[in-house]
Amino acid sequence: DTLNIPELIVQQGEHAFLRGSSGSGKTTLLNMLAGILLPEQGEIRLLEQDICTMRAKQRDRFRADHMGVIFQQFNLLPYLSMLENVLLPCHFSDRRRQQAGAMQENAEQLLEHLKLDKKLLQRPVTELSVGQQQRVAVARALIGKPEIIIADEPTSALDTDTRNDFLKLLFSEAEAQGSTILFVSHDPHIATHFPRIIELAEVNRI
């Protein structure tokens, strides 16, 4: 997972697909962009700010305010309901709460677009299927209109129809807000939906 990237520029509002072989460092790069990991040297500028110069709490605040992150492992809180998990970013970020407006209504709309039944709203996420949990993680990332959406294999547990619905929702939400998307997937069909494909092997000088 060694990375040596002299320069990688993604414009605000751009939708980019990051492609690379297994073990090439895709997830490591996403974790750096999310401020979870830091490079040994260099800078990472997001929204005109170098997150490498921020303290850990500042990076956490920046991520909460400006990023929707969909992790491979979902990172849902098992003791919370489906609805409570989706609303989490609004509790940690004033900005996301204000952008969401009527929070519960916004959350229910996102979940409905992802074909999750309202009957499940109060159900603990541990009682949901893997595919349902993945869609909850997606809705949580989208709520509050973050400027940057980082997605690491967000469709791996979805069937074809739900995957396509998710992509439509992701692109419509991102375009409405002018959000940047950086998306990683092993599914080659998904790459065809993106106007830009970044080959990690071409930007990583190791």
Secondary-structure blueprint:
Layout: E1 15-19, H1 26-33, E2 45-46, E3 49-50, H2 56-66, E4 67-70, H3 82-92, H4 94-100, H5 103-113, H6 130-142, E5 148-152, H7 160-177, E6 180-184, H8 188-191, E7 196-199, H9 200-203
Helix pairs in contact: 3-4, 3-5, 3-6
Give the class from helix and strand content and strand pairing.
alpha/beta
The share of residues in extended strands comes to: 5-15%
Tell me the name of the CATH homologous superfamily: P-loop containing nucleotide triphosphate hydrolases
Tell me roughly what share of residues is in helical segments. 40-55%
- Name the shape in a single word: globular
GO molecular function, one term: ATP hydrolysis activity
Keywords: ATP-binding, Nucleotide-binding, Transport
Protein name: ABC transporter related protein
Domain ABC transporter: 3-206
Descriptive notes:
The protein has 206 residues and is α/β, with parallel strands linked by helices. The chain has a single domain (15-203), classed as P-loop containing nucleotide triphosphate hydrolases (Rossmann fold, 3-Layer(aba) Sandwich), CATH 3.40.50. It has nine helices and seven strands; from the N terminus they run βαββαβααααβαβαβα. The protein has helices at 26-33, 56-66, 82-92, 94-100, 103-113, 130-142, 160-177, 188-191, 200-203, and strands at 15-19, 45-46, 49-50, 67-70, 148-152, 180-184, 196-199. The strands form two sheets. It has a five-stranded parallel β-sheet, with helices on both faces. Strand 2 (45-46) and strand 3 (49-50) form a beta hairpin. The radius of gyration is 17 Å and the shape is globular. The protein starts with 14 loop residues before the first strand and ends with a helix. 36% of the residues are buried.
